[in-house]
Amino acid sequence: MFNTSGKFILALHFLIMTTPTVPAQEIVVLLHGLARTAASMQQMADALESAGYRVLNLGYDSRHQPIESLARDVRARILAASADADKVHCVTHSMGGILVRQIQASDPIPKLGRVVMLSPPNQGSELVDRIGHWWIFRKINGPAGQQLGTAAGSFVNQLPPVDFVCGILTGDRSINWINSLMISGPDDGKVAVARATVPGMTAYKVVHATHPFIMQKKSVIRDTLHFLQTVQF
């Protein structure tokens, strides 16, 4: 298993030993993507905890509510879990990043620190444009999935630029060539590389990773830790 690999544990130990000390009372909230669960972020959670952070690996019902409702629920749970924290950082996958943008645009978390978004559909996904009307797509992805199109008037493209410290890591590898045929330019199987960007972002990096597994890639975990500490990739 990835998280029990001797090489990974040794590399992580070295990273932790050479990483600046985490200030007291900093919490990192992990938000998974659409139609995923908190289990998908567990390896990231383990690494962050080993680095000294308090971690809230937050699961939410991504498939049955629109983004606005999801964001309100997630915000309330973050505030309840971080009442004694000095800073609240976030590491998100896919639509998890859109939840953070919606929260900060509508009712900001006052102690928000640094945010790392992994493969976020910040400008939407062509997959929603092409197959979002299919019954099976709507069944799997629910109302939130319908809000992730690329049209100028889509939900994601009506959100304002980010006004917080935000680093974006996105992939250029795909394990679904059929999806990739529907996407313009390099992509990760779900989101075009170019559509992961957002005005106001602090840092941006393209990595050799796929959309479903970017959060489990060792180099991405290292980059995430580095950004939380230094605001750089």
The separation of the N and C termini measures: 26 Å
Task: Estimate the mean pLDDT confidence.
Answer: 92
Q: Helix/strand/pairing class, anyone?
A: alpha/beta
CATH topology: Rossmann fold
- Strand numbers in spatial order across the main sheet: 2-1-3-4-5-6
Globally, the shape reads globular
CATH-level-2 architecture? 3-Layer(aba) Sandwich
Percent helix range? 25-40%
Radius of gyration: 17 Å
Given as residue ranges, the uncertain stretches (5+ residues, pLDDT < 50) are: none
Number of strands: 6
Topology readout:
Blueprint: H1 6-17, E1 26-31, H2 42-50, E2 54-58, H3 67-81, E3 87-93, H4 95-106, E4 112-118, H5 126-131, H6 135-145, H7 155-158, E5 165-171, H8 177-181, E6 203-207, H9 218-230
Explain what the structure shows.
The chain has 233 residues and is of the alpha/beta class. It has one domain (2-16, 23-230): 3-Layer(aba) Sandwich (Rossmann fold), CATH 3.40.50. 37% of the residues lie in helices and 16% in strands. It is built from 9 helices and 6 strands, in the order H-E-H-E-H-E-H-E-H-H-H-E-H-E-H. The chain has helices spanning 6-17, 42-50, 67-81, 95-106, 126-131, 135-145, 155-158, 177-181, 218-230; strands at residues 26-31, 54-58, 87-93, 112-118, 165-171, 203-207. Strands 2-1-3-4-5-6 form a 6-stranded parallel sheet, with helices on both faces. Helix 4 links the parallel strand 3 and strand 4. The chain starts with 5 loop residues before the first helix and ends with a helix.
